[in-house]
């Protein structure tokens, strides 16, 4: 926490609709200048959270502090709302020109004409739509409309920007360049941003911290690498693309590491971590941390691989699936294991179904989560 | 047939000579119905916007009442406004019965539900999220209503046309609260009724034609604006 305290602090946020709790966030703090993204499946409560934070969805339980002032008592709701701006999946432009659209937030605030004009032109240019200023908003393409919508939100120079799936309805051709422009703009302006998406890659590209949501709750919040490499539960692990999630039981401690038997196989995996012997755990292994190798074919290459990785398993390729720039390789090593390799490696190693390979990963690449929910089950 | 031809001939003559009495009647019609429409726009759009944009108990009943009011029979309105404005009625102290003011009141009562009903429909037709977006841009409640009104301006033009069309052509209320006093509270519709009952069909036809031209002219202008705004 910075010495000045968080920009936004939400306590005990709770929204109920029709008897069901659709949002339950005991504490959320947003630091000045950070980009915090909320990811999760549909219905996880991401949009509800954003709308509650912007006081657009009422009633709700809980308190909101903005720069330490309680919204609604120390700080009028209107003043708080005027510190925010929002852009959502639909551009929701007004039925007028592009210029008038982008100036609307400033006009609402009574900004003088000259100042307004230069701000509007600046933001239109930053979003690459300066040439459209006199066009009717109705005549824009989806990508153009979304850029105008974002320029309208940024033109206010808000203290907090709320983005609700801003790239959600765009085709890849207009989406990619817009995400790149957005990265540059966020970096340049250091605007505190809350960003809702269901796309992990989008959130990784834009945010400093990630909050994974499910069923109205924040399951985990933290820096991207922490969430990716150390998910707190099975849901987060699967949502952030962990690839391999195995159930196991701690066999023995080995100094800094433990040996974990993998349920349903005779294999054991070495992992960094401290859990008591006999504990049931989930083992999470990210696919990018699993390295594949094949015997070189030269004489005397029967020797075991020389590697610092503590886990070496031989197995067969069960499936090869293209994933864009890399290939996803599913293996059967007595237990299922997933690895990502580049297209070149895939060709060089001649990875096809049935091919025998050696998979290796470090003990530090294994993240263990205490398994809850089914005690007494035998591994 | 001769009667109609004679009527048309007389109407043409009254029109091209700018007959002072006919012109007076026409101007009063425009004035009374114009002001009544303006009053109904102010009340109808503001109340209609509030009904469309807020949630309150009994809202559904309110909307039903507004929609029913869109078909209010002018004679019934005339009757109740007369009773209210009678010298010993609740609003008798105003002393406006049998004046153009009373006609404006009655016509505004007729037009307001029409404007209100169309406003509710027009505003509800705008995306719900648009409202959130306007609030997120920092709008006050008044600014919200103003921006939503601007967004709904095309269907609201229909409200203007329907409201004006409803009152310029009604006769029942005007005759009851205005009294059809020559040179004072006589408008096109009341004069037409009177001339026809006296057997002066030529004058009645002339007045009827003027009424049609008026209604057509106003709607022509509004329709032109409406269609120009739709380049899609």
Question: How would you summarize what this structure contains?
Answer:
Chain A is 25% helix and 35% strand.
End-to-end CA span of chain B: 47 Å
Q: Write down how many β-strands of chain B occur, each being a DSSP E stretch of 2 or more residues.
A: 0
Biggest interface, chains and residues, is:
A-B, 26 and 17 residues
- Main structural class of chain B: mainly alpha
Mean pLDDT of chain B: 90
Largest sheet entry of chain B: none
How is the quaternary structure best described? heterodimer
User: Would you count the extended β strands of chain A for me?
Assistant: 20
> If classified by CATH, what would the architecture of the largest domain in chain A be?
3-Layer(aba) Sandwich
Name of the CATH first level of chain B: Mainly Alpha
- CATH-assigned fold name of the largest domain in chain A: Rossmann fold
From the alpha carbons, calculate the radius of gyration of chain A and give it in angstroms: 25 Å
**Cα-based radius of gyration of chain B, to the nearest Å:** 20 Å
Q: Please outline the major beta sheet of chain A.
A: 6 strands, mixed
Mean pLDDT of chain A: 90
Number of helices of chain A: 10
CATH architecture of chain B: Orthogonal Bundle
Structural notes for this entry:
The complex is a heterodimer of chains A (379) and B (232). Chain A has 379 residues and is an alpha+beta fold. Chain A has two domains: 8-235, P-loop containing nucleotide triphosphate hydrolases (Rossmann fold, 3-Layer(aba) Sandwich); 242-370, RNA polymerase II/Efflux pump adaptor protein, barrel-sandwich hybrid domain (OB fold (Dihydrolipoamide Acetyltransferase, E2P), Beta Barrel). Helices cover 25% and strands 35% of the residues of chain A. The model of chain A is unreliable at 375-379 (pLDDT under 50). Chain B has one domain: MetI-like fold, CATH 1.10.3720.10. In chain B, α2 packs across α8 and α10 runs antiparallel to α11 (201-228). The A-B interface holds A 51, 54, 56, 78, 81-82, 84-86, 88, 90, 92, 94-96, 104-105, 108-109, 136, 138-139, 152-153, 156, 162 and B 127, 129-130, 132-133, 135-140, 143, 147, 150-151, 231-232.
